[in-house]
Amino acid sequence: MDKILEGLVSSSHPLPLKRVIVRKVVESAEHWLDKAQCEAMFDLTTRLILEGQDPFQRQVGHQVLEAYARYHRPEFESFFNKTFVLSLLQQGYHSLDRKDVAILDYIHNGLKLIMSCPSVLDLFSLLQVEVLRMVCERPEPQLCARLSDLLTDFVQCIPKGKLSITFCQQLVRTISHFQCVSTQERELREYVSQVTKVSNLLQNIWKAEPATLLPSLQEVFASISSTDASFEPSVALASLVQHIPLQMITVLIRSLTTDPNVKDASMTQALCRMIDWLSWPLAQHVDTWVIALLKGLAAVQKFTILIDVTLLKIELVFNRLWFPLVRPGALAVLSHMLLSFQHSPEAFHLIVPHVVNLVHSFKSDGLPSSTAFLVQLTELIHCMMYHYSGFPDLYEPILEAIKDFPKPSEEKIKLILNQSAWTSQSNSLASCLSRLSGKSETGKTGLINLGNTCYMNSVIQALFMATDFRRQVLSLNLNGCNSLMKKLQHLFAFLAHTQREAYAPRIFFEASRPPWFTPRSQQDCSEYLRFLLDRLHEEEKILRVQSSYKTSEILECSETSLQEVTSKAAVLTETPRTSDGEKTLIEKMFGGKLRTHICCLNCRSTSQKVEAFTDLSLAFCPSSLENMSFQHTTSSSNAQDGGLMQATVPSPSEEPVVYNPTTAAFICDSVVNERTIGSPPDEFYSSENTSVPNESNKILVNKDVPQKPGGETTPSVTDLLNYFLAPEILTGDNQYYCGNCASLQNAEKTMQITEEPEYLILTLLRFSYDQKYHVRRKILDNVSLPLVLELPVKRTTSFSSLSESWSVDVDFTDISENLAKKLKPSGTDEASCTKLVPYLLSSVVVHSGVSSESGHYYSYARNVTSTESSYQMCHQSEALALASSQSHLLGRENPSAIIEQDLENKEMSKEWFLFNDSRVTFTSFQSVQKITSRFPKDTAYVLLYKKQNSTNGLSGNNPTSGLWINGDPPLQKELMDAITKDNKLYLQEQELNARARALQAASASCSFRPNGFDDNDPPGSCGPTGGGGGGGFNTVGRLVF
Question: A Gene Ontology CC term for this entry (predicted)?
């Protein structure tokens, strides 16, 4: 039969006749043949397949071999043995070279025919070795593609174990040697198809054996980073990029950019060749990897590489915009390269001559895809022309060409440029995958939560945003001092100048933590703020005393330094000094005076005292009863004399206050007290302390309480402040011991603010003790936060000075039912007037949660600059003067309400920031106002108001203001060196940041959804239930994070 077939295929008979005879030969395969006849037939068909003169002969060989192998399988198994296959692979077949693709095709088909035979296992073992040898010989793309087909169908032939790693590495090297010299489209398509088959094989191996991936990628980098001038790796390596998991970008890029063994020359070559990969059609994610490597190099400050590569490749990348298949990736890389190259217009000016032709070409084709592309391109061009203005001769033709496309706003341009600068890339290398709001967008630095330290973080950010206080702290000369103020200065300096997204305030936390605060446990931010200000105040006083004992030259130097410091601090306040000693910085910034009168209702005798305060604690007004009895944890006398919620700073003659750790700052919602600096005179309450019990006392108050019509009106901070200042009747268990009567008597107590602070701190007393259930509860009532707050200040003055007060003509009776009359103490004949001092809201600390024992703190804040305060004060004073007279005539309420809406509307467009531990985002005053209405558990707790001054120490008459950048003083060398050192350290930490961020994201105390807007989840939500500390928290989750 083999002779018949051989004669037939070589005869000159017509082709149809040959096909009929071949069909008969195929059918005869069902008949029995001896072994010799079978081998002869197998030998003939093999020769026809491998050496056939025409396609017909090769086709006949395949058909007959398949038929006879199916019906005579043992004979074919004996013929297609290990020795025969090995000879084909190593020696070829007769005149056919061993590297001919026909041999691989023949072996591929032979494996299919004996797949069910036991001997196939021996062939698999043989091929595992042979395919490794083949790829080491750098086969051509066609042969490599056929090998990939074989290994894809028979994965048993792929080397195993360590040999699989070697095989993948050698296959990568083989791809790097691929070349296509043809320019014909058909041949180019075939070449791309061959490369795709090989890259798909590698992908399958990586999936099956993940251990092979990293060595393969190392081999890729070794190829593209080679500086051997005789070897140019193939752009076909780009086909592998789409198979690398994107999750590995951060780890791989950090590893590359921080590896000391990778030289700058090698990195430059690698980056240039990766940019060349943009030319590879159908390759995905090449642009993502290129941008990630650019950002990685910027993060480690390898700017020389970035400059060289950008100037070398920017025109090539721009030219890729002409080709639709690679245009999206090319545009992404071009945008990043241009926007990050911000130190010189050189790169942009290299492509400027080519822009007009590209725009005209795409405008003329009219395709929707072209229009969308041009919109993105023109936005990029506008950003670059904005950044490098001053070249009208170059830009006019471009402006004419793109005039029909939208131009981005100046704010958007600034944001885009700020995000893309090389110096901002250290913030977030992974931003090529997902961009989060970081310092690059807000310009602010967050504070890392060290374990339930949100109470400290929220307070520190509020103080930092108190502009005048921050500037005074930064301008202090504290070199050689290890005080708490020095640590605060250090912290403020880092918040202002670090490159970190978030800073860890470990040193300051350990130094400022009250001794009774258990680490990693929830605490009250108000109590912490009070302790912090007291410590700073007392410390400055002690340092002054210590400096007085220094001798000769050291004494002179110290006194000069302190005079400079205090002179700088003094310019920020217009409050006159009322004490003999010089005020501390805390007194100048936060200190006010409060005068308390007590009038005996029996003999009408009065006693009074004046106390300093740093903040006021505002209780909530009772909702119904005018004469209301309520419980609290200490008596009124104790509250006035260093009890709960007081931060008492002793006078220089006394010992520092020792805080009681058991007196946590949870108090009844109806306690009316103030926090003080300075000790009250002993004689004032000398009788009360022996006659009034300490626990469970009741105060009967007789105050005109602002009512809620229908229970619907939201109380405002002004209402709570008026309630705080309203007279109080001491009766029943709280009778006043009158020295004149020598007995307990009913009395009237009245408090008046006589000196206003530069920064007014208000605490809303939201935590009350439930006597019935013996638990502390939170008052969740919403409170309206006025942008402008008018603080009534009672001052003794001459009649001639009344006309100097711009608000003296305001009818104060309209504000709170003849409150002005009530504020005047009985039995006094002093000539006094009430001045409404305007304050502007600076920051709000919010507590998120339903109880005092759980939840989270975060803060809203904004920069209230001196210029803004002065301008708004002048503007408001004029408006109030007019509004005041109109209000008086028409019987309206507080005249500030007339202009309040106007000021609020202006503030809507200004920048407010939301500080939520390490996260800082933009927000608006509207979000501040509506936080409780949208998220009922999130309530304002501590408010910081800035006084609006008519004259301010930070105005142009400040001799040092010319040296201040953005209003802040220049840092001293010691601070600047520390920040520079930390910034360098921060760059070295980038390798570990990806893992740290993943850990932080999983355990972060407070995080937003990726969109970051507070219209979705409450900003204070944290813990497993996302409820800000309430409801279904378990024991661990109830802690404050």
Answer: cytosol
